[in-house]
């Protein structure tokens, strides 16, 4: 291997300022950039969906089938024993209620969680888009509401409203005796998912227990694990140990088909975008073929002086790979910039109809795994694209190129 | 013991063009002794460059054999021939064919580095040759910064760096003015005598050919001894 010679040939400024080379680089860069953006978009969409589900329902959601959990302390202890991966156990209860404000009504799911914990929970804190100023709180029960509920009922932080729970009277099955509780909006949340934003409100556990008349009983637990990816295994173990009295669902079970569809779509898009990169590498082939023709006399001289055909193949493969690496580096940089720009822009100008995609915006996430795939795929295609011109160069007769200057 | 370094047996070179066959060389037999200075002459299109390329193993005959010290070179594959050329043969072409990406010193070093010499060994030898050829101050100049005569002298140094047994030159002064051409011609004879090289030169320059003790004349692909 004659690295010194290859270096001399490949690292020439002149070579990279030729129009054919610049067009090749431009093509590869764009292809790689789009590949990076599309992968980052899909990964971000998946992660946003995952985090929105986990923030509302926990990594694992344990619900007592058809009833209430009466011995919550014991159950919590049992859960922690079965699964040491659990970091947080949050007791919750929930009920469907009607909320009314300024003559408008909306049916919502009211979740009751331990309020002291709720105020400190980072998953709720990070989702607050407006929060009441300290000292402005009225003497009522505080509640967090989803942003679509707030829009529909024209509620702002600090506003009070009524929550109505229709209950069938114990005296007569036909008589409805509604239970009413007044709340004030402590914070408006963006759960990141349209379904949650239009349906979920979060209040204190005790208030909801009082509203539903369930005493100190709860509906179940939300668990946070040290690693969300362990959820399926832990959920399976818990189901096995706790039995079928409990419905145990991890975050992957919620919208499972959607997650699977996203995974397939991401794979398909990867290959579709890869076609762009392949097309771009035809330019590299063309550039190298031109290089072979332009360097015909040099190839002939090198062959005459003793370079073997495989040396010529290596020379052109390395030349192509150098172009590929430059294009790749440029493409990755552009891809990072486009991803960042896309994330900023879609926050300012939402491009996704929320009612269709059930999400108003999503974070763009560059995953190391995706980047490695992009790099490997690009380099493999690049290498393959160099082979035809490299073999053409090696096959040239040394004689023809020596006849002319 | 035979002193023949290079010989051919019934060399024929033909090209197929549009269904017709064009024979450039027609059964050429020749033999060249070690240390001999030989000139191949002929008019344009007589096949003299083709013969030189075949003798230098840059091209293969359609029929016939080439022998180096009795060894049949037509039996070697491309890579074996490349190695053989690197060790035994030096080439000077009508157009200098220096690599523009390399400076004079690197151009001269190229065959030695390809042949496996270290950078230091190659440079030591190359510097000596460049000094010998009067290019002491031009080592780090690129071909584009050299005159025609200087480029051809660098090409000669490159041809000599591996201490070849046979030096091939195809119209070495054909692209130079008469003064520089004369200098290059003198240089060839001086080097041939000093280094004991076998010199095989193709030219159509009658004056240059007249200086050779042995001249082969090619006419329509046939050798006239």
Show the helix and strand layout:
The complex is a heterodimer of chains A (about 400) and B (about 220).
Chain A: H1 3-10, H2 19-57, E1 60-64, H3 72-82, E2 86-101, E3 104-113, H4 115-118, H5 122-125, E4 128-131, E5 141-146, H6 147-152, E6 160-165, E7 179-189, H7 194-199, E8 200-204, H8 205-212, E9 220-225, H9 231-242, E10 246-250, H10 256-294, H11 296-304, H12 309-348, H13 354-357, H14 368-395
Parallel strand pairs in A: 3-8, 5-7
Antiparallel strand pairs in A: 1-9, 1-10, 2-3, 2-6, 2-9, 4-7, 5-8, 6-7
Helix pairs in contact in A: 2-10, 2-12, 2-14, 10-12, 10-14, 12-14
Chain B: E1 4-17, E2 20-33, E3 37-41, H1 48-55, E4 63-68, E5 71-72, H2 78-88, E6 89-92, H3 104-114, H4 119-132, H5 148-160, E7 166-170, H6 178-195, E8 198-203, H7 206-210, E9 214-219, E10 222-224
In short:
Chain A is α+β, with helices and mostly antiparallel strands and 405 residues long.
Descriptive terms for the model:
heterodimer; A: 405 residues; alpha+beta; B: 225 residues; alpha/beta; six-stranded mixed beta sheet; four-stranded antiparallel beta sheet; 7 helices; 29% strand
Percentage of residues in strands of chain B = 25-35%
The global form of chain A is: elongated
Termini separation of chain A: 27 Å
What is the subunit arrangement here? heterodimer
Describe the structure.
The complex is a heterodimer of chains A (405) and B (225). Chain A is an alpha+beta fold and 405 residues long. In chain A, helix 2 crosses helix 12 and helix 10 crosses helix 12. The model of chain A has no long low-confidence stretch (mean pLDDT 86). Chain B is an alpha/beta fold and 225 residues long. Chain B has seven helices and ten strands. Chain B has a six-stranded mixed sheet, with helices on both faces. Chain B has a four-stranded antiparallel sheet with strand order 2-1-4-5, covered by helices on one side. In chain B, strand 1 and strand 2 form a beta hairpin. The relative contact order of chain B is 0.20. The chains are: A alpha+beta (405), B alpha/beta (225).
